[in-house]
Every structure is written in structure tokens, then in C-alpha cells.
Design a protein that fits this description.
OB fold (Dihydrolipoamide Acetyltransferase, E2P), 121 residues, alpha+beta, 28% strand, 40% helix, 1 helix
Length: 121
């Protein structure tokens, strides 16, 4: 059962002025509106998609009568967001590890300083 926010794959089976019809793996059809194809301005759907192209898209709406609205643009935005999040996590871990190492080095120096102080007093 297809739900909103699912990632689906299918083949382009038709192109119109306003978008592309996609036949999904389960035989259902969905529409990628021209505004949901790319972050770039899309004047002609044919510049981005061709019949028989395999596409991956995000389900953005399912109407009461079962019509499925899809988006390649939002899928790409989600993937870009996740990549940025992963990079951010990696940077945070690097900074945390550097901080912990510096803290450990300072603690070691402090302990040595205190030991030396005791030896000489």
C-alpha cells in the first residue's frame, strides 16, 4: 500500500505539457507535475524526462479518488538534506574528538604539574 512520503520507483509512460505520468511497480499510475520535476525552471518536461525513463520519486499526495502525486524535486531535496546532516554529524564528531583529546592532554599536563609541585615542596 502506497502512502504519502513513500519513495517509489517506476517508468515514464506518458508526457504532457503539465507533467509526466509514471507507472509504478505495483501497476498504479502517478503524476509528477511539471513544478515537481526539478529545482530548475522546467519549461518543457521533455528536456528532463523521456518515455520509458526509470525514475525514483517521493509520494507527496494521494487524493480520495486514488490519484497519486509524485515529486522528484522533493526526493532530491530530502537526499541533499540528509547528506548535509551526515556531513554536519561528522564535523561535530571531529570537533568533539579534538576537544576530548585536548582536554585529556591538559589534564595530563595538570597532573604532571601537581606531581612535580609535591616532589619539590
Amino acid at each position: 500500500m502506497i502512502e504519502v512520503n513513500d519513495i517509489v520507483e517506476g517508468s515514464v509512460v506518458g508526457i504532457t505539457k503539465f507533467g509526466a505520468f509514471i507507472e509504478l511497480e505495483d501497476g498504479k499510475k502517478g503524476l509528477i507535475h511539471i513544478s515537481e520535476i526539478s529545482n530548475q525552471f522546467v519549461k518543457d518536461v521533455n528536456d528532463f524526462l523521456k518515455v520509458d525513463d526509470k525514475v525514483k520519486a517521493k509520494v507527496i499526495h494521494i487524493s480520495d479518488d486514488g490519484k497519486i502525486d509524485l515529486s522528484i524535486k522533493r526526493l532530491n531535496e530530502d537526499e541533499e538534506y540528509l547528506e548535509k546532516l551526515e556531513k554536519s554529524k561528522a564535523m561535530f564528531e571531529q570537533k568533539l574528538n579534538k576537544f576530548l583529546k585536548q582536554s585529556q592532554d591538559r589534564l595530563t599536563d595538570l597532573k604532571k604539574h601537581q606531581e612535580n609541585k609535591r616532589k619539590f615542596h
